[in-house]
Amino acid sequence: MALIYEKKGHVAYITFNRPEALNAFNPDQVQEFSQALTDFKDDDNLWAGIITGMGERAFCAGADIKTLLPKMKEEWSEPGSMPPIIMRGLEISKPIIAAVNGFAFGGGLEVALACDIRLASENATFGVPEVKLGLVPGWGGCARLPRVIPAAMAAQMLLTGDPVNAQEAHRIGLVNQVVPLAELLPIAEKWAERLCGPGPLAVRVAKDVMVKTQQMTLEDSLALEWAGIQGLYKTEDATEGINAFVEKRKAVFKAK
């Protein structure tokens, strides 16, 4: 399998499983990634996801140039022809953590950019080297990177293709935390536990509003936010959360 998909409690684990190729995307891995993400999106018992790579060298080194680029050029060139993934074509309101365990180049960095929380091992390296191939990122690198880090740093990475290490990635706001490699997955699991603690429907609405309002006016953003909270007032989770606060006990949410 080019990808391993597991479920533990309310958390989905997606692991790129081509360590011999630095977990680079080939067509099979793209297809399996799409299937795993779709299942995660549709499974009501899953509230958060963790994406990582197999081995100690790479999260994902981007596209397998020999197999994926010809596929994208010849068969997946039209909009909507490629299997939907979080970088392009698939919107998921549930929170996703990228546990970056080494190289995150090209499509690998674009996976991390499409996640909500980014954790890096101390040996992680981030880059978008496509310009060195005479190309540009095609899964949101040009669009998302300047929304995540300062424009000058995005320009530096995108226009030169040069990478940054984990410490620099943390300094510029690309990652939330840098940790020893051996502690990466346990800390990612603690983050997942934190994300599963609040009302899961509220977390999804907060993510949706945060993402969708990036290109809206303030007036439209406030309207979307208001619609979100009005919808939450009608949920069982909101009733439980308010009652638990009044009764000074821990809320038991059910995503309903």
Task: Compile the SSE list and pairings.
Layout (H helix, E strand, L loop, with lengths): L2 E6 L2 E6 L10 H16 L5 E6 L4 E3 L7 H7 L21 E5 L2 E3 L1 H7 L3 E5 L3 E3 L13 H8 L2 H10 L3 E2 H6 L5 E3 L4 H13 L3 H13 L5 H15 L3 H11 L10
How does this structure look, described?
With 256 residues, the chain is an alpha/beta fold. It folds into two domains: 3-196, 2-enoyl-CoA Hydratase, Chain A, domain 1; 200-246, Lyase 2-enoyl-coa Hydratase, Chain  A, domain 2. Helices cover 41% and strands 16% of the residues. The chain has helices at residues 27-42, 68-74, 107-113, 141-148, 151-160, 166-171, 184-196, 200-212, 218-232, 236-246; strands at 3-8, 11-16, 48-53, 58-60, 96-100, 103-105, 117-121, 125-127, 164-165, 177-179. The strands form two sheets. The protein has a six-stranded mixed sheet, sandwiched between helices. Strands 4-6-8-9 form a four-stranded mixed sheet. Strand 1 (3-8) and strand 2 form a beta hairpin. Helix 4 packs antiparallel against helix 5 (151-160). The protein starts with a strand and ends in a 10-residue tail after the last helix. The mean pLDDT is 94.
Task: Using brief descriptors, characterize the structure shown.
2 domains, alpha/beta, 256 residues, Lyase 2-enoyl-coa Hydratase, Chain  A, domain 2, 10 strands, 2-enoyl-CoA Hydratase, Chain A, domain 1, six-stranded mixed β-sheet, 16% strand
